[in-house]
Amino acid sequence: MPATARTTLAASTLIVGITAVGLVRVIFHLRAIQSNLAATTSVAQTVADLTGPVPERLTSVNNNLRPVREFCDSI
């Protein structure tokens, strides 16, 4: 095999190897991002659940506090 062919094979092997290592690193980074996004999504969902509308059972509290609100509005 001529030296030119060996050099070409070595260079192409080196290029393919470096590209493969780069792609594997990208895969690991994407997996880390995916796990971080999953954690962030679950935390955001928890916050959304905790800050949702007041349940129906608290409407009586609002009715009982209506005179206080009206007094504060009059000031």
Task: Give a quick summary of the entry.
The chain has 75 residues and is mostly helical.
How is this structure best described in words?
This protein has 75 residues and is mainly alpha-helical. The chain has one domain (3-74). 84% of the residues lie in helices and 0% in strands. The protein contains three helices and no strands. The chain has helices spanning 3-50, 59-64, 66-74. The longest helix has 48 residues, at 3-50. The radius of gyration is 32 Å and the shape is rod-shaped.
List keywords for this structure.
single chain; 75 residues; mainly alpha; 84% helix; 0% strand
Give the SSE map.
Elements (H helix, E strand, L loop, with lengths): L2 H48 L8 H6 L1 H9 L1
Question: Count of helical segments?
Answer: 3
Principal-axis shape equals rod-shaped
Instruction: Tally the beta strands.
Output: 0
Radius of gyration: 32 Å
The residue-averaged pLDDT reads: 89
> Mind describing the biggest β-sheet?
none
